[in-house]
């Protein structure tokens, strides 16, 4: 599936979204069309092999929209550039000057004809869009405004007709200027990324699109890292705020990963690339946010359904307001016609329709600047109603950097012990668990190289790992594995009590089905974990810890964190069961984990949150929300973002409906001129846009 993104400046109302889909979806090869009203972008997914010359040509999709006066252009990759708006601004300025001159009719009557100039400049664009909508049997804002303009001219009130044209055009221009901030919120970081990378061996600049995996590039102090890579030479501090939202420098040493869009603050670095430019962590983040902004929320769908019936119903009321008095031969026909035109303006649901998507778009973009990747507006709604958050222990509540405390064996010579360590390390080197990583490091410090003769490596779900090394079956796991294998762990009872006091994780080792020893490894809670949990609790959300570790290790961490509720010795399916129970008994449930080992629980929760995934494409895809850094305090920030989003949406919906009720009430009482009704309508659109933008 190929993807084409278009800038569509001609979207003056969210009500035009169905019209855009009606234009593009019938084109051969088009699979899906999504429209982001706030950022004025349209994304078209299409078959790259179907009628390549016509349908799949990017310019062809833009041409189809331009025939409907949508001012579409292909959005090219690379640095974002401002769209030329000089022509639109100039026309608006001229029409505004003409309208101001028309008000001088109070001193000299012929000045009123300047309003005709305002109408001639702005009305044709509105009329052409209205015709396109009527051809597709749609009653959108352009049709309603055209009726109001024609009605005002029919009443020979040219200044009022000109005011409608100018106010409608000015509001559209003002919204365009305002929502550019939503685009720039994410585009800023992408714009700064250099378009070339410097080869380490020759010092020559090469376009990023030509850089292959494994290429060595150099980055000088003060320069931005152009592409994801692993540090081969040099040391430095790096500003990762473009990804994580945290401006505090991060120390980088040989072997550490560095990400595109981050800034090398000191030192000369040689980096081996581990991704292409289009697949960098920053590029993935921006793509995820762009996709999230195009997703429609439940509230948005409800509002659109309401608007679908609201506009025709109000239009029928306006028609009846004109026809019934005429059929009854009542007096004041001009009054009833004027009132019906005001009702036509009130029938425009633009402010109501955009009240939710503009807020969701801004909230998602604002969260991304803080390193919080939210996959859609529905996640924002769930965050606002979150009742409980379950958090994995290892690597989430704790640092995930284990240290091996001790290793004990049963009646074994030093030579045999070295061979055993070599074989165990060989098995553990195939595992991604933090304890396994710690044990391999422990063995290497002893000067022992892990065995490479490892075969039939397996993960024992909820128990540990096993493999065949040098012809021997090596099994490493927790107490559950020891019980299943009937190993006599009591022989090590004198060590176990001490380990339990330290909250250590105990791993049992068996060779060919017989217990030969055990080792222990300890982790510690994150420095910010206790503060983060207190913040979450203070927001009214229940917190509990889920872990596959033993009871003593879980109890130790729980004590360090202020005595939070915990469930220990859990299999992955046990975590899913607990999540399902919480969903049924408590309400909206979030699960926080590393995005890989906790995938089933993340998928089962209402909200799956993966932490520290700046370089993990898998975690970004699995989670509903991805935190680009390992800082638990961001969970409370997420809660705040969700509640702020809900509050702003409710405010926008209230503003949209209340304004229309006030206008109708004043119009019935005879206090609302037509231009004031238009001003109230388009003004509310601008108001809800700016109100949503406070979340950026």
UniProtKB/TrEMBL annotation:
Superkingdom: Eukaryota
Biological process terms in GO annotation: transmembrane transport
Subcellular location: Membrane
TM regions (residue ranges): 90-107, 113-131, 143-171, 309-329, 336-354, 607-627, 648-668
Molecular function via GO: ATP binding; ATP hydrolysis activity; ATPase-coupled monoatomic cation transmembrane transporter activity; metal ion binding; transmembrane transporter activity
SUPFAM superfamilies hit by this protein: Calcium ATPase, transduction domain A, HAD-like, HMA, heavy metal-associated domain
Annotated organism of origin: Selaginella moellendorffii (Spikemoss)
Gene Ontology cellular component terms for the protein in this record: membrane
Chief location: membrane
Protein name per UniProt: HMA domain-containing protein
């Amino acid at each position: 599936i190929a993807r084409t993104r278009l800038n569509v400046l001609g979207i003056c109302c969210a009500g035009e979204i169905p019209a855009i889909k009606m234009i593009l979806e019938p084109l051969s090869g088009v699979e899906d069309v999504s429209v982001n009203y706030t950022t004025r972008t349209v994304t078209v997914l299409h078959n790259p092999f179907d009628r390549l010359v016509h349908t799949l040509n990017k310019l062809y999709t833009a041409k189809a929209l331009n025939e409907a006066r949508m001012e579409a252009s292909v959005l090219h990759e690379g640095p974002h550039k401002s769209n030329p708006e000089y022509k639109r601004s100039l026309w608006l300025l001229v029409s505004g000057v003409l309208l101001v001159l028309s008000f001088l009719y109070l001193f000299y009557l012929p000045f009123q004809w300047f309003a005709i100039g305002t109408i001639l400049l702005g009305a044709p664009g509105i009329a052409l869009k209205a015709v396109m909508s009527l051809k597709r049997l749609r009653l959108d804002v352009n049709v309603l405004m055209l009726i109001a303009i024609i009605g005002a001219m029919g009443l020979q009130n040219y200044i009022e007709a000109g005011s409608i044209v100018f106010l409608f055009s000015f509001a559209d221009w003002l919204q365009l200027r305002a929502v550019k901030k939503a685009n720039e919120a994410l585009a800023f970081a992408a714009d700064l990324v250099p378009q070339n990378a410097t080869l380490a061996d020759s010092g020559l600049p090469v376009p990023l699109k030509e850089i292959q995996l494994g290429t060595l590039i150099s980055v000088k102090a003060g320069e931005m890292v152009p592409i994801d890579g692993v540090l081969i030479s040099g040391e430095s501090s790096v500003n990762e705020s473009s990804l994580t939202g945290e401006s505090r420098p991060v120390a980088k040493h040989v072997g550490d990963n560095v990400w595109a869009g981050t800034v090398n603050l000191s030192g000369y670095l040689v980096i081996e690339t581990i991704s292409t430019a289009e697949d960098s962590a920053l590029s993935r983040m921006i793509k995820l946010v762009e996709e999230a902004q195009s997703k429609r929320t439940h509230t948005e769908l409800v509002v659109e359904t309401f608007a679908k019936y609201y506009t025709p119903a109000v239009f029928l009321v306006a028609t009846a307001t004109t026809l019934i008095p005429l059929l009854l031969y009542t007096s004041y026909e001009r009054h009833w016609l004027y009132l019906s035109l005001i009702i036509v303006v009130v029938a425009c649901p633009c402010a109501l329709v955009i009240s939710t998507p503009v807020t969701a778009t801004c909230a998602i973009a604002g969260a991304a600047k803080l390193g919080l990747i939210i996959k859609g507006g529905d996640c924002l709604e769930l965050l606002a109603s979150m009742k409980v958050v379950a958090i994995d222990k290892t690597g989430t509540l704790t640092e995930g950097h284990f240290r091996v405390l001790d290793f004990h064996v049963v009646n074994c010579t030093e030579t045999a012990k070295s061979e055993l360590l070599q074989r165990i390390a060989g098995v553990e080197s195939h595992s991604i668990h933090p304890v396994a990583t710690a044990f391999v490091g422990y063995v290497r410090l002893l000067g022992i190289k892990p065995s490479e003769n490892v075969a039939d490596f397996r993960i024992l779900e909820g128990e540990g790992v096993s493999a065949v090394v040098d012809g021997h079956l090596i099994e490493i796991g927790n107490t559950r594995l020891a019980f299943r294998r009937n190993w006599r762990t009591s022989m090590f009872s004198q060590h176990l009590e001490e380990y339990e006091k330290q909250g250590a994780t105990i791993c049992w080792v068996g060779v060919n089905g017989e217990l030969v020893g055990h080792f222990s490894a300890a982790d510690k809670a994150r420095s910010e974990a206790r503060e983060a949990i207190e913040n979450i609790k203070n927001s009214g959300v229940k917190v509990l810890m889920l872990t596959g570790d033993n009871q003593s290790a879980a109890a130790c961490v729980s004590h360090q964190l202020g005595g939070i509720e915990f469930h220990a010795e859990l299999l992955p399916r046990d975590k899913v069961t607990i999540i399902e129970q919480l969903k049924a008994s408590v309400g909206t449930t979030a699960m926080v984990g590393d995005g890989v080992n906790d995938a089933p629980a993340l998928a089962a929760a209402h909200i799956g949150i993966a932490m520290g995934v700046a370089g993990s494409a898998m975690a970004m895809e699995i989670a509903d929300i991805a935190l680009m850094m390992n800082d638990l305090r961001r969970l409370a920030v997420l809660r705040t973002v969700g509640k702020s989003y809900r509050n702003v949406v409710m405010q926008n919906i209230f503003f949209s409906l209340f304004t229309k009720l006030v206008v109708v009430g004043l119009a019935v009482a005879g206090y609302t001129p037509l231009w004031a009704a238009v001003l109230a309508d388009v003004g509310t659109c601008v108001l809800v846009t700016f109100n949503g933008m406070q979340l950026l």
